[in-house]
Specification:
The chain is an alpha/beta fold and 495 residues long. The chain has one domain: Amidase signature (AS) domain (Amidase signature (AS) enzymes, Alpha-Beta Complex), CATH 3.90.1300. It has 18 helices and 13 strands. The chain has an 11-stranded mixed sheet with strand order 1-3-2-6-8-7-12-13-11-9-10, sandwiched between helices. The chain has a two-stranded antiparallel ribbon with strand order 4-5. Helix 2 runs antiparallel to helix 3 and helix 12 crosses helix 15.
Length: 495
Amino acid sequence: MDSSNSFTIEEATIQEIHQAYAENKLTTRQLVDFYLQKIDTLNPILRGVIEVNPDARVLADKADQERQKNGGGSLGTLGDLHGIPVLLKDVFGTKDEMNTTAGSYALMGSKVARDAGVVEKLRKAGAIILGKASMSEWYKFRSLSGVPNGWCARAGQGVNPYVHSETPCGSSSGSAISVAANMVAVSLGTETHSSIICPADHNSVVGFKPTVGLTSRAGVIPMAPRWDTVGPICRTVSDAVYLLDVIAGYDPRDAATIEASKFFPNGGYKQFLRRDGLRGKRLGIVRHPFLEKIHDSAESASFKHHVDKIRQEGAVVVDNLKIADVETILEPNHSGEILVMMAEFKTSINAYLKELIDSPVSSLADIIAFNENNPELEKLNDHDQHTFISAEGTEGFGDQEKAAAEMLDNLSKNGFEKMMQEYQLDAMVTPGSRGCAVLAIGGFPGITVPAGYGKDGMPFGICFGGLKGSEPKLIEIAYAFEQATRVRRPPPSFV
């Protein structure tokens, strides 16, 4: 590119990339080459990318040719994601040369029957699948206590690009690391319990966890289908919304999208990117226990400052609210959440494995055996698999699991849902990722936006959570907050 060109790829948004395409300041091939070079340079340190698509440059050239035939093109002409590189968490099935392994060697060489539902939509929109992001192996579910966040056998330990000694969180660790460090334009993650919100929060990016069923999970390695959801991890709210607009909607291969498709608004979600989106919104703050868990004085002061800013932007802040039985909700072993997860994981992973065209393992029992037989690959001297073994010991969704699921439903209805309805709230505001359990057990949406940096430089965010289908309000709130604060900065250079 011409050195006099004012456009820079670092931190560029989807809109800015499309504008550069339209003005012939950038080609998709140049963009892909830039990101591949970034991966070559940074990934040995950060370990955010597990595998690069060997066809990435071919796909980039094809996108450039399509744009030339279309007369240059601009945003929306060929699709909002046309020529935009996307990194996928290593659980999204891709019918190409890449593996889909949940970070484990146990699934190396397995062959999916087709692209995951959201991957089909990305390709149709013209996106370039750049590669697979690293992650907490098997969603950290191999061993809830024995496997660190961001660690997987195939990539090693993911590293926070802001403070290398701090956790990147997980399980969508690589998706957040890679976007934060500008190794890709945008990424996709998944969340069952905090797996989008937490890594986005810890890596100073935007994480959007949609209502369960708003985005298809078909062809995605499952964790617990009643709570699993697919969502964007990006540097800006607008990029996350552009991505959500493409991947949301009905998929005949995922029954949950039938019910949730009623939430998809006519005209999509981009219409809610409103600078005045905080005006008139009612936002609730639950101080106990979320604010009590803040130990960094910079984060505490920042949260207070941002709440004041939210008021200045025209929102009504309802303070000192309470969620019934919140302590129980925040303890997944006590609430029954882990019990339900174990039963659902065994059933759903066995079903997923049977759908593969080819696979070295065909059941959870096979995965456990593979790990035991390959300790040098799966690092079993350091990281055990006791949660897998407990899950294998379950016998489906029996009376105990049904009772736990019913209890969780009641905790949600009598807690978060009741508070939201009683005070007529548009969103709950929480610092960091501390409110994720509340959103998880009800299948509720949430979006986290960068909110500051601690005394050691560690990022933190603010999360806005709402009731099912409240994405339009959450987008208005998050976008207006982002535009009013503009906190995010790229990580420090370390190479």
